Amino acid sequence: MGAHAHNEEVRKPKVRHEGPKRHLVAFIGSLVLTALAFIAVAFEVIPAGFTVPFIVFLAFVQAFFQLFVWMHMDQKGHEFARISIFAGLFVILLAVIVFVYWVWI
């Protein structure tokens, strides 16, 4: 029974307490990415054909930013969640490629 209790402790995610600096940098980074997307559309800084891919790229950067900073996916103990998220992204990407190929070709 004692060995079982020890195994349960090993599986718990290890949380690092780093202070507010990392969170402030991440928050400011998220604000900058949002401002870039707004400026790109509002002031037509980039060509019209490149606007949507640029905003989608910024969205992916911000999503990864939030996953690893706010949801602590970079810490030990989150391996299954990380694998599940990236496997799901792969399946979605594969489905999009298949349906685009199916419709356009």
UniProtKB/TrEMBL annotation:
- Where is it mainly found? membrane
> Which molecular-function annotations from GO does this UniProt entry contain?
cytochrome bo3 ubiquinol oxidase activity; proton transmembrane transporter activity
* Biological processes per GO annotation: aerobic electron transport chain; electron transport coupled proton transport
Protein localization = Cell membrane
Q: How does it sit in the membrane?
A: Multi-pass membrane protein
Q: Which GO terms describe its cellular component?
A: cytochrome o ubiquinol oxidase complex; plasma membrane
Which residue spans traverse the membrane? 24-46, 52-71, 83-104
The UniProt entry, under InterPro entries, shows: Cyt_c_oxidase_su4_prok, Cytochrome_c_oxidase_bac_sub4
Q: Which domain of life is it from?
A: Bacteria
**What are the protein's UniProt keywords?**
Cell membrane, Membrane, Transmembrane, Transmembrane helix
Q: Which family does it belong to?
A: Belongs to the cytochrome c oxidase bacterial subunit 4 family.
User: What is the official name of this protein in its record?
Assistant: Cytochrome C oxidase subunit IV
Specify the taxonomic lineage. Answer: Bacteria, Bacillati, Bacillota, Bacilli, Bacillales
